[in-house]
Design a protein that fits this description.
Blueprint: H1 9-18, E1 21-24, H2 26-32, H3 39-44, E2 48-51, H4 63-80, E3 82-84, E4 91-93, H5 103-117
Parallel strand pairs: 1-2
Antiparallel strand pairs: 3-4
Helix pairs in contact: 4-5
Organism: Bactrocera latifrons (Malaysian fruit fly)
GO molecular function: guanine deaminase activity; zinc ion binding
Keywords: Hydrolase, Metal-binding, Zinc
C-alpha cells in the first residue's frame, strides 16, 4: 500500500493483522499536499514500512532525499501534535510520548524497512 496518510485506527489495526506493508513516499505526499504519514504509528501497530520516492508525484528519485523528507514529516507531525491554546500563546501537548524519527530509523526505512516490506529481508 502506498502513502497511507489517511488511515484511521481500525484500518491500521486491520493492516497490522493482515500483514500489509506501506511505502512511505514523503516527497510526493508533500508535492501533492495529500497528508502526513505517521510512520511511527504504523510501526507500533506491526505494519512494515519502507521508504519510496514515487517520482511521478514527487520531484526526486533520490532515496537520500526521501530520508530527509521522512525526517521532516516526522518533525512536522511532532509540531501538529501540539496545539496552541487560543489566545494564550501556550502550547498544549496532545501526545507527550511522541518522538520524531531519528536518522537511524530513516536509514532503516530506506534499506531494511523496504526489504522487509517486500519480504526480501533475508
Amino acid at each position: 500500500m502506498a502513502h497511507a496518510v489517511h488511515l484511521d485506527d481500525e484500518e491500521i489495526k486491520l493492516f497490522g493483522k493482515r500483514g500489509t506493508s506501506v511505502a512511505h513516499c514523503p516527497a510526493s505526499n508533500n508535492m501533492l499536499s495529500s497528508g502526513l504519514c505517521d510512520v511511527l504509528r504504523l510501526i507500533k501497530n506491526r505494519i512494515k514500512v519502507g521508504l519510496g520516492t514515487d517520482v511521478s508525484g514527487g520531484n526526486s528519485m533520490s532515496i537520500q532525499d526521501a530520508m530527509l523528507r521522512a525526517l521532516d514529516v516526522s518533525h512536522h507531525l511532532e509540531f501538529v501534535k501540539k496545539q496552541e491554546i487560543k489566545g494564550s500563546g501556550r502550547l498544549e501537548v496532545q501526545d507527550q510520548a511522541y518522538q520524531p524519527l531519528n536518522y537511524k530509523q530513516a536509514i532503516f526505512l530506506a534499506t531494511l524497512g523496504g526489504a522487509e516490506a517486500l519480504a526480501l529481508s533475508n
